[in-house]
Structures are given as structure tokens and as C-alpha cells.
Amino acid sequence: MSKTLLALGSDALHPVLQDLHQQHWHITHLHEVKQHKPRQTGPFSAGLVLLDNKLQRKLDMLQLLGSQLDMEWVLLTDRQQLEHPAVRSFINDSCYDYHCLPVESARLAVTLGRLHGKTSLRRHLQQEEAPAEDKQLVGEHACIRRLHQEIRRLARVNVTVLITGESGCGKELVARLLHQHSDRAAGPFQAVNCGGLPVNLVQSELFGHERGAFTGASSGRVGRIEAAHNGTLFLDEIGDMAIEAQVNLLRFLQEGTIDRLGDNRSRNIDTRVVSATHVDLPTAISSGRFRQDLYYRLCVCQLHLPPLRERRSDIPLLARHLLAQNAQRLALPQKRLSYEAMAIMLQHDWPGNIREMSNRISQGLAMASGKVIRPQDMGLGGIILPAQQNSLDAIREKAEREAVEMALELHSQNSSKAARELGISRATLYRLVKKYGIGLGD
Q: Which fold has domain 309-385?
């Protein structure tokens, strides 16, 4: 990755930039924040700001620009400006380091070199991890294969998407995949847990505030919606958002503008909104806990994640994936599941879904004394298998029957389409239908 620098400040920066240019930095120098259009230049491995009174008044814009470019700043300032609360807040939130004037060129070069190395490593790891997120949506069940197709289709269209499903099914992962496969992938992804926001902080968290907007607001703050400009805003647990806050969110979705607390200027925001909930929103609308007009704005298209118990045939595949992933994450040796442990996992209802499975496998990796994980290592020792379903063959047959029934239901009993969905021939489908006594009407 080449050493690319975005420099902001007056012509007083020229001597510093000349030294950096001789050290093979590729530099874009701007005098004003508003001169920069993130989609036209970059990426930058570092940002350099010479702070004067004009730029000090635009620290919120610098913070937003750094977020959009996925980049940290090195600040050049005098000691007097360091006493300003907004400057200190900017350093804490958005800066890798700061240098006091006059600049020591050699020391600055070392700082920028370290920032370049940090940025290069982080982006390299992100590039390696991006395809892995696709792989984390693990499963061969028809509903998961169909979900992959729907994600790629909807990623190309700039509409709001509502993701539904029980807790622990992977709704945020799906939201990230929608972002990664869209033309906004280079922009920020901002995730907000709406259920975890106190009512009195929702406005500030989502829309931001100016200094002095309320007691304790010693400096301005960019809201999460504004920070998602040119990217994706993910509103998790939207069904738990306080009814008082829903009207402001609706206004943003209708007009595409926000007003920070304490500021009467409207800001145009370009972001794609993806939301998720485990709540039945039509029921919440009927009971007056959720606005119907907001629901229609959020749910132009919908994706549903089935609970793990409805795709049991994927459990062995998921278990192997989580064993390898969690062993690596915990720096533990690879282990395998015992026959009894897998049989119980196939029978278990998984009320916490994939999150629960990951937790139990991590527990098993930590607690197993040998190379084999047994049910008691995962906290599943108290589960007793029914006598008629204590073999893997019986459990596999149950999952196989459910998969055939779901494929036929999905394709209105059309055997050709159901067979293609399952990846089998029509002859094999007819054999399974006969074996399990499934009704079939073409």
C-alpha cells in the first residue's frame, strides 16, 4: 500500500509537505474541508491537519471526514489550542497522535510512518475478513441458499430493508453483507442498538448535538446517522425503539435531512437504512408501540432469518465451522465433538440460535480435558435423548424429511423445482417422498 496523505491547512504546511514528499509520500493538500469529496479521491493511509481558527470551528467536519475515509488524523497545533475542550475531544476521538508547533520533521515522519503501517495492516486484515463474513452465513439448507441470493439481489438496490428473525440468528451479519455487496461498501457501516438507547439520549446519539445544547454538552458530537453518510446505517432491535423517538427517525427517512440538537441548520444525509428486529412489528403497531408510517418506510423489502431449529440439517456444518473459528479465536487446540454430543446438538431446540451454539462450543473447547468434546463439556449433559431418536441416522432422517417438505411447500408441490432447490434428481426426490410418506401434488 503506497503512502498516501490527505493534508488540510494553510500554505504554512508547504515546508512540512515538501519534506514528506521527499520521503515518497503521495500528498493531496486542501485548504478547506468542504473541498474534499470522499468518493473522488483516496484511500488515504493518514491525515494531517494544521489547526488554525478557521479549521477549529470545523472539527466536527474533520471528524466526519475521517470516519467516511476510514482514516485517522495527526494534528499539528500550538499548546494554547490544546486547552480547548473541542480540540481535546477531537484528539481523543479521531486522532492517532498530535504534534505541537513548531514541527520537528523527523519526529513527524516517524509518527506518520507508524500510522501508515497501522492503517495498512488493518485494511489488509479487513480485506481478508470480508470474504469470511460471507462464509459465516453457513448452511446448505434451501432457506440459506435462497437468503444468499436475496442478499446479493437487494444489495444492488438502494431501498430500505427490514431483517426479521429471533435473537442470535445473525441479523447484523446479514446487514453487513448487504453493505459489503453494495456500491456503498467503501463507505462507513454504522450499527446502532435501538433497544439499548435511553429515551433521553436517542436524539443526541442518532442526530448529534452542538456544544451547549444541553447540560454536560461541553463539545459538539456527530450523530450516528451523520456518521453513516455515503454508507449504511444499521438500526438493530428497531422494534424496541421508544415511540417518542420514532417520529424523528420517520422525518429523516422522509426528507433525508437531520437537525442536530442545538442547531437550526438542516444537513442532507445520503445513507442506506437497514433495520432488524425480533419483534412482530404488525402486532406492535396494533398495540400502539410502533408507528405504522415508520414501518412502511423501513420495510420496502424484507429478509427473514429462520431459527436454527427449522434448519437442523445445517447443525453439523455449523458446528464444524464454529469449532474451527472459536478454537482459532481462543488460541486453543482443535478438538472434535463426540458422537453423543453431536446427537444431542441435533436434538436440542437452540432457543438462543447460532449465538447459543457458538457460546456452548467455546465452553466445550475450554472445558474438555482431551481432544473430544462431550455433552457435559458444553453444558448439555442434562439432556437425555428419546429412545426412538438416539442415533444420528434417526436425527438425519428427521432433518431430511423436513428439508423435502419445505422445498415442496416453497415451490407449491412442483417436484422439478423442489428437486433443483434441494440439488437432487427428480428420481431421488420421488424416492424420498415415498420413503417418508410425504403427500405430493404436481
A: Helicase, Ruva Protein; domain 3 (1.10.8)
